Structure to design on (400 residues):
């Protein structure tokens, strides 16, 4: 089952800048061979369900190991069985409507 | 790694009432032996990471098999390594503050 | 326009326990006359769109004034125009399906 | 109070493709003069709290008027009082960490 995810990992009780934790997660996602797009409030991820979920778990383990006692994550997660659809397809589909 | 999750599964392109899909997911979560609390905008779940994630995947598979071509899920997911904390602890902690 | 919301306000860069901030927000929501249900990963709120949104803004202002330099909030928000539905209706509708 | 938001509006009980609804919301956000970035699972928005919230309400009203009886929206919403930060700052801050 393929999934498109939007992942936002927020370490608590650490310094006010979170970018080093986010960067560590980007490395994990890339190393897992997942397609990603970083934006201003999370990261889009595309891949097989199990591979994506294993990478998200690895991100939690990594961020805890970097010193965060607590993590609050928000995940949006879409699956569909009617047809294949990539992250680019989703954006392009909206942009096409806007161009008309 | 223990996790407290808030799960909100939304089947798309189905009838306007979603309760039969939510009910089917409740059965899956209970059968998985997970502690749950159903509220008006999702379900709190407490358990081990892998068990919770396997149950969420089973929910997606079930809801697709019931006829939903597309599912949009929102998950909030908290882990902490400083101490144990249950769902009841979290609510009680706020209620204690309110009682003073 | 009536709305049913699930609100989860997370102050960053503060102590690891967040319950005093959550409690302060409960007070604001109650004082605003909104119907609420506190659960282990947020608070359900029912009310008119503008009243609910004004209360959420007041929560952010309050939590900042209590010392949080940064806040990360997650809101789920449902509106429907086909019929009236309360928070209790939503839960009861699922429970009825489970009872059969 | 400035806010950075991630908005994901999901009309229910409509056709399986949601892009025409998303496109209509993009128009509303642009017309409101808000800075936006469309990604595969939502839209980043930057602006003043009241202006952003008014635009989100206008999106709900528009999507209902296009025929959706029910809408399920997910909003992530960040405020900070320690310093100014734009959507580009947030992405750049992570990319700088990755470049080292």
């Amino acid at each position: 089952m393929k999934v498109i995810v939007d992942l936002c990992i927020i370490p608590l009780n650490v310094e006010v800048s979170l970018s080093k934790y986010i960067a560590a997660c980007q490395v994990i996602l890339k190393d897992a061979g997942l397609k990603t797009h970083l934006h201003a409030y999370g990261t889009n991820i595309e891949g097989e369900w199990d591979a994506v979920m294993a990478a998200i778990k690895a991100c939690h383990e990594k961020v805890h190991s970097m010193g965060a006692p607590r993590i609050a994550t928000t995940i949006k997660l879409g699956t569909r069985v009617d047809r294949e659809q990539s992250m680019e397809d989703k954006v392009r589909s909206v942009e096409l409507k806007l161009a008309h």
Chain C has a mean pLDDT of 97. Chain C touches chain B through 35 residues (CB under 8 Å). The first helix of chain C runs from residue 19 to 31.
